[in-house]
Amino acid sequence: MAQAGYQGWTLTTAEDGLDRISPSIAHADFLSSYVLGRKPAVFTSHFTDSLCRWTDLDYLNDKAGSSIVKVERLDTSTGGFGSGLPRLEMPFREFLAKLKAEGEEVEMYLTTQYDEEAETSKDNLPELFTCPPPCNALKDDFPLRPSILQSLVPHQVNLWLGRSRAQSSKASSSDEAIDWTQSHSSGLHHDHHDNLYVLLSGFKRFVLFPPSAHPHLAFYGSASGAQVYANGVVAYEGDCMGPDALSARDRWGWETRRLQRVVNELKKKRKKEKAATKGNLKFKLKGIGRQKTALEMELEIAEQALEDAEDKYLDAIGEEALDGADMKDDFDALGDMLGGADEGLTASGDGMDDASSVAETASVAGSTSSRTTGKGKSKAREVDGVTEPPSFSKIPAYVLHTKLGLPSGSVPVSKSEEGSIGYEDADLKSLKPIVVYLEPGQMLYLPASWIHEVSSASRPRVSAPFQKRSRAECAGGDLADVHMAFNYWFYPPDNIGDANQKDTRGIYEMQELFDYLGSVIEERWKGSEEAASSGNASSKRMRMS
């Protein structure tokens, strides 16, 4: 059973819902009230108009058509996505062509992109940030860090694109006009990172539960034990994940790299200091009776911190080895890491970022995760031949919807099937779920490990599908039965003790480490932009996917 340690916001009364705010809200206010308060919120508009052009499929084809993507197929047994079934690999332009065609394309969905073959960089360091295809070909259209979340360090971006069953009735764009019995579901799950979900086309219905509800929602990972941290992040047995969503190995590997740089810089300064005082008598006496300089003491402290970080890094590697991971010899791993480029960074997917990225249904663009086992991440469970991540619930979407009185497009479950898993008597309403409807042009901020199920539905066909739209039309329009969303994942802040804190510093317990990680990510982001514009060979070294 999970250890319920969540200390963030929860629903007070059934009448309460999420705040609806403008993206023009002051960064400090949003940080204190929502990010540190761990409180979801709906933004009434996007932070940039440039993403609107993505609803023109021809634009996507021109910009990113050559990108190779992996496409998920509908699980016909559940009527949803996120089942862990094998995915199809194809050029993005081929997938776009299938979206425009009639037939089986309704059963295909572009979800989180990741590379199972490249979970760590050559110098044995973990990936920090992922900008997978086709997003890497579209990065001119979005910022690395939206200003509203500038204090958070980005982990990944992703495009969600699919199609659902079109509706034919004439109706307005309100949620009452949407036939949710024709929707697809992501399945109930949680993510390990803070999420900003930008809806571009289609309609979404989110069912949300706070992290404190985790012990009551029959997660695949619950059987082997789980821990809920104060900021809501859920860690499962064997994954060594901390409240910052880094594994112990990742955290201390990067901290060792950071401190190595600090020590090197201090040694350079010390060398200059000695050179500047070379003629001074007290230095000629080889230090006898003299006090250490401030720089020498600072260097000693940094060297001790480096030694401690190296020990913790090696301990973490040893723990993973005990769990059966295929690891290098501890000191070989440490040598590779220290000997690598000063800012080693790759950008394939985080092996098990959160069991949701594959899931965000035929239009659920905002959860995360791949279905493989990453270094230091939770191990997926195999159920009836299908790999299920620990961060997914066993409760079928149809059961969830029925118990909450919501119309469902998911496949019904028999009483015998429901009873066999043991959740038939679950009182979901007592867990204070929040139902949120999202329309094109709106965004949802969801703190890490807020449990959610997302249903995706289209609006009635009142106009020709796949037509190009102006910026003004895009904000409130759609592409008939095409669903599209873009989302950011951020490393969750784990220093949330003072929810009224308006200082942008200190939101992470290891703030200096995350400042360093942010600088590494930004350098690589800028470097890849320069390489792409110049077309030189360095683009391969700086690639983000």
TrEMBL record:
Coiled-coil blocks: 256-319
Keywords: Coiled coil
N-terminal signal peptide: none
Compositional bias of kind Low complexity: 366-375
Domain JmjC: residue ranges: 131-505
Region (Disordered): 345-387
PANTHER family: HYPOXIA-INDUCIBLE FACTOR 1 ALPHA INHIBITOR-RELATED, JMJC DOMAIN-CONTAINING PROTEIN 4
Protein name: Clavaminate synthase-like protein
Species whose genome carries this gene: Heliocybe sulcata
